[in-house]
Amino acid sequence: MVALSLTRKLAVLADAAKYDASCASSGSEKRDSTTTGGIGSTEGSGICHSYAPDGRCISLLKLLLTNFCIYDCAYCINRSSSNVERARFSVEEVVQLTLDFYKRNYIEGLFLSSGIIRTPDYTMEQMVRVARTLRETHLFAGYIHLKIIPNAAPELLAEAGRWADRLSTNIELPTDTALEQFAPEKRPSEIRTAMARLRGKLDETVEDKKPSKAKPPKFAPAGQSTQMIVGADKADDAAILTRAAGLYSGYRLKRVYYSAFSPIPDASARLPLAPPPLMREHRLYQADWLIRFYGFDVPEIVSGGEAGHLDLAVDPKLAWALKSRQSFPVDVNRADRELLLRVPGLGVRAVDRVISTRRHHRLTLADVARLTASIDKVRPFIAAADWSPGAMTDDARLRQRLTPKPSQLELF
Amino acid sequence: MLSVRLEKFNDFGEWRNKARQLLAAGMNPSQVVWRVGAEDSGLFEAGDDMLPQPDGPIGSVPSQFIDLARDVIQHADPERFAILYRMLWRLQSEPHILQNAADSVHQMLAKMASAVHRDTHKMRAFVRFRSIIVEGEERYIAWFEPDHYILEANAPFFTRRFSGMHWAIITPYASAFWDKDNLRFGPGGSKKDIPAEGAVEDDWRIYYGAIFNPARLKVSMMKSEMPVKYWRNLPEAERIAPLIRNARQMEQDMIARATTQPPARHLRQKAREVEAPEKTEQFQTLHDVSEAVDACRRCPLYEHATQAVFGEGPPQAQVMFVGEQPGDQEDLQGRPFIGPAGQVFDDAIKNAGIDRSRLYVTNAVKHFKFVPRGKRRIHQKPNTGEIQACRFWLDLEREFVKPKIVVALGATAAQALVGKAVSISSTRGRAIDLEDGAVLIVTNHPSYLLRIPDPETKAREREKFDADLMLIKSMMQTLEK
């Protein structure tokens, strides 16, 4: 076999990595390189250094160490039965690329994943070595996200957490049945056990805040996340969100990423080869947000749609409100925070502003309009000093009026 | 009309100094024009040299205003100095305007500050360094065109991040230089000052193309986050047009292409894999059972639990304790009775003089049943169907361990062992014969003790629990004789 050039490897192994949606580089500890003389910093929120024409942020150098894989997961471009071009980086090559890109301010850091070669332990050990080299040899203080191979040894997980900001284990599919069907070598309980182990490690770092105790060793300060593929199997949105809520509650995940199943080169015949369900993915992210920050639970969110699926035409909060009109209008001058958060069109920031401003004077509809991006969606659901929606809230045509016009396709 | 002259475009200290003089002199904002740099004064404007220098503070403002002003001063709008002074003037009589998010001047300032923040953020994102070798040392140099006067306030970000690099950032109005020790500023420059770079920039363009998914084309999203005005200084931007042009074709090709034959490597690997033995439920040892339980699909609880939690203890233990189901901690760690209820249990058996290492401890139901509530999982009682389904495993444990004494902790365990719902009050405190010759003792689940709010009742129930354990202890002693 002819050795591939570094550039060719980069093309192959970045292409192989792009189906992992996670690109976040936020939420880690605050650190920089002023005292070390190295390079790198993380200051809370991450930075998107570029955007690809798919509208997705490019924040981390997202690579696979190798796309050779002994597993044969039907949905994956790197499954062993696929004919994609294969490549493998050495540890030093990934380290050098990361540093070269970081020094030019192209990236916030590295997101390294890998196909499984030889054994899970061997693969994990190689990935850990990349992270360790960056940190120890090159005093790299940028962001590192490592993918966890579910059944790798616990010592390797512990070391991964020592060097990385974030760790992630992909749940892959919303139900165990689907995972067993499409990823015969993966065990759902092994994946969840890996998440449980990470949670155990993460819990250790927050317990014992007493000053007398020695600080526990650092472990993945940006926590753990996971990804679920949407649309490859038959699971409905209720199943997807229930799975997500279970994962958030059990393993303290920072994020669940939803990745619309997208056609891949040399795809398996067992999967739907159709354009990815991007709107469905978008609605799931919105629903996920409502569950985490707006006090909604899964059955409420799902009740806004039909037959276990979210409404694709309107956002899930509006969909819920349209079916729960008895809860409206909400008086912006009196209602507590919890209720205000349920008003379509009012986000967390708008609600904060409403609450701080109404201490000084009663809010009119025009005041509310100034505090939010668009008043149209809000108007039917609130009462203000000079405004009552009257019969508008119960108008049968309300849904139709608030449904965004389908946007025109972009032409090239 | 009074003309106030500032030397710098964005120096908050300089502006504050002048503003304090104006305020001390009682100058109404409508009587003041602000001029910056070499800008000409109007014909009828008086200079500001006559303004008295106040000694000490001349009033107070909320700290929120200072923060806002530090940002707004960097804005490119020539009116920024005047708008800030107008706000400062109003704050003297209306100290709370800044809490009124609906006030129009406040909104204007907030909007200007947020434009500065956005520009600052985009600079952190879109500065692109190029590497050159100067006197044998690698140096990094970047050209950036900000919308506002943000370089000075933003440069420390780059020193924190690239402290081990020798770098310069050139903008049209000023430049910043870092030599690994000191940050200094100089005059502006031009794009021509920046040399070309080869290989790494090429690799970056390769990466940019490879990470793009043609099946998800969303150009407007890209443009809103990475406005076209920045493209001329981004090396990857030349790839955008061809990537968009070919996207549809690439997507359709992927969809249209027929499935190929797996590569030989894959077929060889498959051939090497020994066919897994057919799953039978014929178990030779307790260990076999414990290996099989994780794949159990007899009820739906496996779907959200982490793992099945099997019993633990000597395979020939004389005493078996059966709880309800694993809790949060048990589910995470895969071992029975290690969470809060497990601690009550450990404490109680220790009091009774029972050694846990001699007990076989398990649960009636092997998977954790819960409902998610934010970041917590709330325990749910297993229903009859789930208890019934899981008896398969409990019966196997009893068959292999053959305990002489079986202890049901709580109603669920009792139901699983007796085969029907029984109340604890009617069965506790006496030995009940089981069909396989063992005897059953029924008592409360230790988590019941944790949930009693009233301390008196709690103490009373704990006594009853302890008494049950003493009974078990004495039965164990009898067995040993």
Automatic annotation (TrEMBL), chain A:
Keyword Iron: yes
Gene3D superfamilies hit by this protein: Aldolase class I (3.20.20.70)
PANTHER family: ENDONUCLEASE/EXONUCLEASE/PHOSPHATASE FAMILY DOMAIN-CONTAINING PROTEIN 1, TYPE II SECRETION SYSTEM PROTEIN K
All residue ranges annotated as the Elp3/MiaA/NifB-like radical SAM core domain in the record: 59-287
InterPro entries, A to Z: Aldolase_TIM (IPR013785), DNA_rSAM_put (IPR023874), Elp3/MiaA/NifB-like_rSAM (IPR006638), Endo/Exo/Phosphatase_dom_1 (IPR051675), rSAM (IPR007197), rSAM_sf (IPR058240), RuvA_2-like (IPR010994)
Entry cofactors: [4Fe-4S] cluster
Species per Swiss-Prot/TrEMBL record: Devosia crocina
Protein name, entry field: Putative DNA modification/repair radical SAM protein
Molecular function GO labels: catalytic activity; iron-sulfur cluster binding; metal ion binding
Disordered: annotated segments: 203-222
Keywords from the UniProt entry: Iron, Iron-sulfur, Metal-binding, S-adenosyl-L-methionine
Highest taxon of the lineage: Bacteria
UniProtKB/TrEMBL annotation, chain B:
InterPro entries, alphabetized: DNA_repair_put (IPR023875), DUF4130 (IPR025404), UDG_Type-4/5 (IPR051536), Ura-DNA_glyco_family4 (IPR005273), Uracil-DNA_glycosylase-like (IPR005122), Uracil-DNA_glycosylase-like_sf (IPR036895)
SMART domains to which the protein is assigned, alphabetical: UDG, UreE_C
Superkingdom of source: Bacteria
Coiled coil (residue ranges): none
Pfam families: DUF4130, UDG
Keyword entries, A-Z: 4Fe-4S, DNA damage, DNA repair, Hydrolase, Iron, Iron-sulfur, Metal-binding
GO biological processes: DNA repair
Entry's family note: Belongs to the uracil-DNA glycosylase (UDG) superfamily. Type 4 (UDGa) family.
Name the record gives this protein: Type-4 uracil-DNA glycosylase
Higher taxonomy: Bacteria, Pseudomonadati, Pseudomonadota, Alphaproteobacteria, Hyphomicrobiales
